[in-house]
Design goal:
By secondary structure, the protein is of the alpha+beta class. Helix content is 65%, strand content 13%. The chain has one domain. A hairpin with a 3-residue loop joins strand 2 and strand 3 (44-46). It starts with a helix and ends with a helix.
């Protein structure tokens, strides 16, 4: 049981770290231009230097929504981690980690909404570039989506012994 709890804790911490990296780094889309590699994230457009991401007015609300949902996913993931630690020491024997699992499901939902909006609105759109593809931050976000779902189900099923 202790090994299972430690494993879930390690995967949860890895998920939080990957969420931070995928939200902060600017490599959601990568393309090539005459000046070299161009990468676009949720915040900046980077070539040799980074500048604010140019977004059309029709896509601005979508980008703000993606930014908000990714930040919310980080917040809920950290809250779930703290809640797990608190419940680990205060929960009675035989009880389940329902609160932690529910909060992690909300984190999962935020990741799903954020990455889905980004996929629908910004795939293939890197300003001033051609031959664009998804970067590692986009892939990390989908990995976090899978991990957060698995962790939330494990929390809901896990019983303190």
């Amino acid at each position: 049981m202790l090994v299972l709890l430690a494993g879930i804790f390690v995967v949860h911490i890895a998920t939080v770290i990957m969420l931070f990296v995928s939200t902060i780094a600017n490599v959601w889309m990568v393309g090539t231009s005459s000046l070299g590699t161009v990468s676009a994230g949720l915040w900046l457009l980077c070539n040799n230097t980074c500048e604010q991401l140019p977004v059309s007015t029709s896509d601005e609300a979508s980008l703000k929504a993606v930014q908000a949902f990714m930040i919310l996913s980080i917040i809920f993931s950290v809250i779930a981690l703290v809640m797990f630690i608190v419940q680990l020491f205060t929960l009675e024997k035989g009880k389940r980690f329902y609160m932690t699992g529910a909060i992690m499901l909300v984190c999962w939902l935020c990741i799903l909404i954020g990455v889905s909006i980004y996929t629908a609105r910004f795939t293939g759109k890197v300003p001033l570039s051609t031959n664009s593809h998804h970067g590692y931050c986009f892939i990390l976000a989908w990995i976090c989506f899978c991990f957060s779902f698995i962790i939330s189900i494990l929390y809901l099923v896990l019983r303190k012994k």
